[in-house]
Amino acid sequence: xxxxxxxxxxxxxxxxxxxxxxxxxxxxxxxxxxxxxxxxxxxxxxxxxxxxxxxxxxxxxxxxxxxxxxxxxxxxxxxxxxxxxxxxxxxxxxxxxxxxxxxxxxxxxxxxxxxxxxxxxxxxxxxxxxxxxxxxxxxxxxxxxxxxxxxxxxxxxxxxxxxxxxxxxxxxxxxxxxxxxxxxxxxxxxxxxxxxxxxxxxxxxxxxxxxxxxxxxxxxxxxxxxxxxxxxxxxxxxxxxxxxxxxxxxxxxxxxxxxxxxxxxxxxxxxxxxxxxxxxxxxxxxxxxxxxxxxxxxxxxxxxxxxxxxxxxxxxxxxxxxxxxxxxxxxxxxxxxxxxxxxxxxxxxxxxxxxxxxxxxxxxxxxxxxxxxxxxxxxxxxxxxxxxxxxxxxxxxxxxxxxxxxxxxxxxxxxxxxxx
Length: 420
Known about the structure:
Blueprint: H1 2-13, E1 22-31, E2 39-45, E3 48-53, E4 58-63, E5 71-77, E6 85-90, E7 96-101, E8 116-120, E9 128-133, E10 139-144, E11 152-157, E12 162-167, E13 175-181, E14 185-191, E15 196-201, E16 213-218, E17 226-232, E18 239-245, E19 248-253, E20 258-263, E21 271-277, E22 284-290, E23 293-298, E24 303-308, E25 316-322, E26 330-336, E27 339-344, E28 349-357, H2 367-370, H3 408-419
Antiparallel strand pairs: 1-28, 2-3, 3-4, 4-5, 6-7, 7-8, 8-9, 10-11, 11-12, 12-13, 14-15, 15-16, 16-17, 18-19, 19-20, 20-21, 22-23, 23-24, 24-25, 26-27, 27-28
């Protein structure tokens, strides 16, 4: 009887949460200064990567069907319409690319047109411009609606301070359906099926860190979006990255070194559930969430980090990869199957990483090898606030069980969780 009890206890203890690391290896990297100078945005559809060149007013189309040898198959350059090309989203059929520009690229001509540009990319070798909706300035982010709602574009105009909803049913004549005023609207993520958009802001007011928010917008009525509530917290200061999965939004602010998990199940009463800090999270510009994993592009660490967030109260860093050449200031990240795709702005590059379950411990973080010098001011010259954040922190020591110490059952459970 006692032996049966101890066997059951041993079995239950071995079912306690454990985390396998995820290894990342670089498959390839491609660079083209002519079409990808200052690469700030990337989208993946099928076997093609679409990458914007901010300084070159361009779109590059990369065929990565052979991931070890990606090649540029087409490009589009137009200084009049794509000056300061900042953000791109491509429809799921790969027929049209939607690009937001800010028109304020003073390297060439700060007075050029900014707005939403629609390109026909059906023929990858010969994309061409269909139309431009040019009365919106400083477009920072744009998103195509969920599948089934593909004729709508949501975009933020940081300078004008609006979230716009654009009808693109007629590609030659796109038009505004509705808008809502949001001061310094920056990053946006959309749940069109659920009827909500989530917008992060940055007011750029010197010595004022109380004006940065995450807004929850009801978009059920496209002609009249309504602000439900907002979160005002210094953790959102200079917010760059925001992503939605389930009842949570994941955010990271550029001057901070953390991942913030916000519970939005009750849209009128959202709350910050966890703030996770780790030295590998360093100047994050973009992130994605999928199957309880968060993938972050750390600009100043020239790296990608992967965080397991299956336990929202206790995230665990389980993957880290850096490269000061191919990932020189990674700016945007996309996940497709077992592969990570990145655009790096100072590397003018497109990089593919392959993920697999790792055998061993996480790599050490070598500051001299991976890290860039961190500025003391943000992009508008105001000091980055240095405040005590420890009251928000959890114990974030990576709780990683070495694969060799796992039970047969837990190893297979890990594989199922990773590959699902």
